[in-house]
Amino acid sequence: MELATQPLSKSRDAYHWRLLATALSFALFGVGGLCLRVFVFPLLALLPGDACSHQRRARRTISRLFWAFIRIMSNAGVLTYEIQGAERLGRPGQMIIANHPSLIDVVFLIGLVRDANCVVKQSLWQNVFTRGPVRATGYVSNDGSADMLEQAAHLLRTGQTLIIFPEGTRTQPGHAPAFHRGAAAIALRGAHVITPVTIHVSPTTLTKAEPWYRIPLRRPHFHLRVGNDIDPAAFAALGPAPVASRKLNDYLHQHFTKELATDERSAPGH
To answer: Known InterPro entries for this protein (predicted)?
Structure first.
């Protein structure tokens, strides 16, 4: 299955309009996070069910709202997108591994997978706009501890879908992604299957240390491609956990480097 936006008219691609629409999108995201924390999640907590049911309900709410946010940005002319293979996301025990070129990569993936858990950076627990949603959903804090690795692996073993960005932060423009080995260690401990998702953005936008108002001269196009499944058991059989983790991490790094190079060659202007 492919998801793609419709091309917009040239007038909708105007720089100043996109700058205003980008500002409004960021404001909407911030206000939405506060509203979720103050109004929506307290109401959801009143519904019957145990803690797991409440977290699942919160994750599905976030997913629908994130996808609505992507559609709003698309319809406003801020960006376009194309998604290949989305129907293969969201399986029990599936670990979704993606590169991280832009600030809104996580919005895309959580929006696509209705009940996905996610490993997110620890600073989101202190951010006034995001701490409500990340706590209500039960997302995993990426604090780098052994407890975090075990918690994430446990979620996979119990049948949850887990999204993780092995770089831990956004990719520096012009550089290949550098994966930390923690994602591979989690996969070997608990994943039923690993599914890579390659994210290519052309031209680059919302990269690391880049302010929101520094938008490109033309609308960025997000291309998400779901790759073939990887069996973690095949790597677990290669040796002790540290060896298997290193080999799996190397394989993932090579996979993403190759896929991103292919996307770069096929991007407009190349």
So the answer is: Plipid/glycerol_acylTrfase
